[in-house]
Each structure stands twice: as C-alpha cells, then as structure tokens.
Amino acid sequence: MPILIFYLFAFLLLSSALYVVITRNIARAIFAFFGTLFCLSVLYVFAMADFIAVTQILVYVGGVVVLLMFGLMLSNRTQLDSLLAHKIDRFGRLKGIPSLLLCIALFIILIHTMIISNLANIPWIIKSKEAETIITGVDNTVKSIGLSTMSAYIIPFEIVSIFLLAALIGAAYLARRKKGYE
Amino acid sequence: MSEIPILHFLIISCALFCIGLFAVLTRKNAIMVLIGIEFMLNAAILNLVVFGAFDKVNNAGQMFALFAIVLAAAGVAVALAIIINVHRHYQTIDPNKITSMKN
User: Which of B49, B82, B89, B91 is the mutation pick for testing A, counting most A CBs within 10 A?
Assistant: First the structure.
C-alpha cells in the first residue's frame, strides 16, 4: 500500500510539473508549482528524510511560492501583451521543438547512464547495508541533523546565515523604489 | 527505503530535471524561467536526499539538501527583486526582448 502511494505521488509530481511547463496561464502555473513541491516533499518522506520534507514545505511552499505570486502580481501588465502576440505568431510553438528534442535526448542519456552504472552494486552502499547504517523509519533524523549542524557542518552553517543576510539586504536594495522612475 | 529501488527515485528526478530544462529553454516569461531553475534544483535535492538515506553516521546527503534548499530560497528572493527591477526599466520580463544591460 505505501508503495502505491509513492507511485501515485510520483505521477502527480510529474504531471503537475508538465502542466507548469505547458500552460500559458502563469497564475495557474504557480499553483501547479505549489502542488509539485508538495508531492516532492512526500517523496522525501519516502526517502526517510522527514525533516527535509517539513523544511521543503516551510521554505518552498510558504516562502518561494508566495514570493513568486508577488513577482507575478508586480509584473502582470505584460502578460496580456504576450498572449496577444502569440495569436499572431503561428510558428511560436514550432520554436519549442529543438529544445524539446534536447530535453528528451538528455533524459535518455541520463537514464542510460543510470542503467549502465549498475546502481544495485555501488560499493559504499553495499558496505553501508552490511554495517546497517541505513536510515530506517525508527531513526531520529532531526537529532542527527542537529548534531551534525553544530559539529561537522558548523562553518557552512555560519556562512549560509551570513549569505542569507546579504541576500535579503541585496533583494531589499534592488527592489526599492528609485527616485528617477516613478 | 528498501521497498522502493533507488532507480525509481532517480528516474523521477531525471524527468523533473528535463522538465525544468525545457521550461528554462522555451518559456517567454522570466518568472517561468525561474520556476524551471527551481525544478532543476529540486531534482538535484531529491538525488541528495535519496543517497543520503544510506549514510546514517554523517548524514551528509540530508545536510547538503538543507543547505541547497536555503540557498535556492535566497536565490529566488534576489532573482525576483531583479525581475521587478527589469520590469520597471523595460516594461517587459521576456528574456528574449531584454537585449541591452544599460540603455
């Protein structure tokens, strides 16, 4: 039964991602993007990463989607113009064919690489299975993440916090209203 | 973890990456290009998480997934600020029409 749920959410993930790419309506695309991220967090739970799943919902669904909606609303004036332009431009869809071919070729190459790389026999995974250091459903990943954040990954953690501060100041500086324009 | 093979996770993340690449290449709206980049980032994060499940001692996969999520969120904030600025300047956010960096 859990396996069925996994494949159901994988299907939902890919179909909503395809809808995001295909649809012309940008507001609907952003809401489908919301669905994609939610399904992705379900897949994280199936990969035994519950804390990452919760962070995904908090950061992406709570933060990024709202930011994208703001960006859409503040730059919405051009949407109508581009829709009108598409009606005139009949070969607009044909322009997508080379990139579609490129993406399909990349997909085939990646799948082929995975199949020939023999994923079942990667040495470190076999070693980890023998030593029984695989994360199972009963393990407390939050505790382990907290311990490694404060020990092995303390320098990246501090750098990320400074980076976040710099990014927020930079975003506020860039988006401010300048005197010359309005 | 043992019930679902790694290959299936990787196929899903592959498909997501290619969908994101297609969005980046074809869409005519900078916000949609940004969403495509987010898809590609999320595909990479899914890979990190899946392989991280085999590393309980260091937990490196999940740690790097966390860092990647934080960096992606910060990147989105800056990119949207730039998009709003570009829209104020050019009255369009179609990447094909923005040809000069300074008028």
Answer: B49
Distances (CA, A) of A154 to A104, B38, B63: 40, 26, 11
Q: Which residues of B touch A148 (CB under 8 A)?
A: 58-59, 63
Q: Could you give the CA distance from residue A61 to residue A84 in angstroms, rounded to a whole number? A: 31
Question: What is the rounded CA–CA span in Å between residue B97 and residue A78?
Answer: 12
Cross-chain CB nearest to B19 (options A17, A43, A141): A17
pTM of the complete model? 0.88
Residues of A with Cβ-Cβ distance to B65 under 8 angstroms? 49, 52
Sign of CA dihedral A13, A14, A17, A18: negative
- pLDDT per residue of chain A (182 residues) written in tens, 0 to 9: 788 999 999 999 999 999 998 888 888 899 999 999 999 999 999 988 889 999 999 988 888 888 888 888 887 665 555 555 555 555 566 778 898 999 999 999 999 998 888 877 788 888 888 887 787 777 788 888 999 999 989 999 999 999 999 999 998 888 887 766 55
